[in-house]
Amino acid sequence: MSGNSFGSQLKLTTFGESHGVAIGGILEGFPAGISIDFEAVQKALDRRKPGQSELTTDRKESDTVQFLSGIFEGKSLGTPIGFIIPNTNQKSKDYDALKDVYRPSHADYSWDAKYGSRDHRGGGRSSARETACRVVGGALAAQLMAEVKVSAFVQAVGPISISVPYTELDLSKVDASRIRCPHPETASSMEDYILKLKEEGDSAGGVIQCVITGVPAGWGEPVFDKLHAELGKAMLSINAVKGFEYGSGFAGTELKGSELNDSIESVGVNRTNHSGGIQGGISNGEDIYFRVAFKPIASIKKKQSTVNKSGEQVDLEIQGRHDPTVLPRAVPIVEAMAQLTLADFMLRAKTNRI
Ligand SMILES: Cc1cc2nc3c(=O)[nH]c(=O)nc-3n(C[C@H](O)[C@H](O)[C@H](O)COP(=O)(O)O)c2cc1C
Ligand SMILES: C=C(O[C@@H]1CC(C(=O)O)=C[C@@H](OP(=O)(O)O)[C@H]1O)C(=O)O
């Protein structure tokens, strides 16, 4: 299996299945001499871990990370940082009924078609459990970029969305609601909507917006490795992601050039930021902002019709501990993938000019 690594200069490789002994990762290219803030890493993991509230899966994991290498006396050595997170609360019996039955819109059939066999328990390696390792990598990457602030929040759940731009939101309040939406009235409607669908045995999708401040002009490699292209890959590699747009995105196509162009006030300062802080694949020093679309969770209790491995029709009512929506737990995953992408480009930028 290839494709378990992300990044160029700073590279995260992850391994492990949801119901195996542990998941883990190796972060290569992390510079030596950095004092590691272990508390910040655990705090990020706590925001992603399962079992947080009735808006998330009931699986209870402490997601305590154990560092195995690359750190000595609290500082990075410049050598690969290896780590594991034990799996402690698997309920593999929940998946017995799914061994030979394909869940609609999960990864069951496509994995079987590709590999001929799979660890069906908890979705195996296709489970979003793997994303805990990305959060460790992201929290370490963030420690290389003191000036950069990455803030994600839930902007929409199903048909309910925040109607004001991010510039009018207090992003320090994201964690004030369980859904991680910084607009209190909208957050409450979002939670009601999710809980109603959960009661009906259904699930909800939505949109996460991410805002990044403090990136200087000059990060991003302008041909294949454009900053927005790598951010797009980072986001689209997260489980259940269906779309990515940055800056004016799809809505910008309805404007004229004269309306969309960011008119220039002075060198490095624009009057608007429809570009989303990226021009020609390179950061221009303004806020970077993008949106990520997540589909509703595939594993729902509501009756669905599917087939088993032998091709027989089966009625399926999925049991087990599933998230009614990915959104609140996906917020720290989006942040982590953005942090990994940015730190990689920060290190790459250091070789651009002597
Ligand atoms: C934070 C998070 C939690 C998730 N929890 C579940 C879950 O409990 N049940 C489920 O069926 N899918 C869950 N997913 C989505 C699946 O992992 C994903 O749909 C599956 O791997 C198939 O991949 P795809 O939807 O990207 O095609 C979750 C995704 C994320 C990001
Ligand atoms: C365990 C996590 O989330 C899991 C993601 C997931 C899926 O299909 O992606 C399915 C569920 O797995 P299980 O049935 O084993 O509880 C979630 O709980 C986690 O994020 O750490």
Write down the domain tally: 1
Average pLDDT for all residues: 97
Percent of residues in helical segments? 10-25%
Report strand %: 15-25%
CATH architecture: 4-Layer Sandwich
What can be said about the biggest beta sheet?
A: 5 strands, antiparallel
> What is the CA-atom radius of gyration, in angstroms?
21 Å
Describe the global form: globular
In N-to-C order, the SSE pattern is EEEHEEEEHHEEHEHEHEEEEEEEH
Residue runs with pLDDT of under 50 for 5 or more positions: none
Q: Kindly report the CATH topology.
A: Chorismate synthase, AroC fold
Going by CATH, the homologous superfamily would be: Chorismate synthase AroC
Q: Class, according to the CATH hierarchy?
A: Alpha Beta
Structural class: alpha+beta
How many helical elements? 7
Walkthrough of the structure:
It is a single chain. The chain has one domain (7-349): Chorismate synthase AroC (Chorismate synthase, AroC fold). Helix content is 24%, strand content 21%. The protein is built from 7 helices and 18 strands. It has helices at residues 38-48, 108-115, 131-142, 184-199, 227-236, 257-260, 327-349, and strands spanning 5-6, 11-15, 22-28, 66-67, 71-72, 75-76, 81-86, 149-157, 160-161, 206-213, 241-246, 264-266, 269-270, 278-279, 282-283, 288-294, 304-307, 313-316. A hairpin with a 5-residue loop joins strand 17 (304-307) and strand 18. Helix 1 runs antiparallel to helix 3 and helix 3 (131-142) packs across helix 7. Bound molecules: flavin mononucleotide and the ligand C=C(O[C@@H]1CC(C(=O)O)=C[C@@H](OP(=O)(O)O)[C@H]1O)C(=O)O. Flavin mononucleotide (FMN) is lined by residues 57, 106-107, 123, 126-128, 131, 238-240, 297-299, 322-323, 326, 329-330, 333. Its EC number is 4.2.3.5.
